[in-house]
Amino acid sequence: MQMRPDIQIQSILKAMTDVVLPAIDPNNQLAQEQAKLCMGLLDLMARQLPLQYRFDCDELTRLVALSKRLLTLAGTNLATPGILASLTQDTDCADEVLTRARAEPHEVLSAVRALRATTSTLVREACAHGEAGATLELEHAVLDASREQLLRDRSWVLAQGWEADPQAMPAIKTLIAHVSKAP
């Protein structure tokens, strides 16, 4: 079970190359062509995936600049006060979104990996050298965090079909909803 799309795509491409494509009848040109087109699209997605966030932020930056220019040029003689107010509000909202979108996805992932490693090291050191009462609190904190992370991970890959009772799992959008509302 892989959770990172870049690894998932590479796994699919490897399976297609090593297993699926060789199994397709070589005389079925349409099937061969379609399989290669699917592989090409997956390869394209793999190359675009790391850039998607920046692509979207770039587009939003350009749209904000355009809307500010249009607001300056349009005035009340070219647009109704209602649309001017809407465009002003949407522009302000987009500006605020861009302000919050300062960190690159790879920076977030790097921070996640660094904190995983450092917290793991702290727990190992504390368990090796600390008193039983103090380490018990650490154990509870780690188990609580692990329980939450496992639920999130299971929900994240729910569509892969591993859960015996998928209806009992909360939706990933519910579990990560607080992130989009963070200051």
Any descriptors?
mainly alpha, flat, 183 residues
> How much beta, percentage-wise?
under 5%
Number of helices: 7
Helix content: over 70%
Content-based structural category? mainly alpha
- Residue runs with pLDDT of under 50 for 5 or more positions: none
Tell me briefly what this model is:
This protein is mostly helical and 183 residues long. It has 7 helices and no strands.
What can you see in these coordinates?
- With 183 residues, the chain is mainly α.
- The protein has a domain at 103-183.
- Helix content is 80%, strand content 0%.
- The protein is built from 7 helices and no strands.
- It has helices at 5-23, 29-78, 81-100, 105-129, 132-156, 172-175, 177-180.
- The chain is flat.
- The model has no long low-confidence stretch (mean pLDDT 87).
Chart the SSEs and their pairings.
Layout: H1 5-23, H2 29-78, H3 81-100, H4 105-129, H5 132-156, H6 172-175, H7 177-180
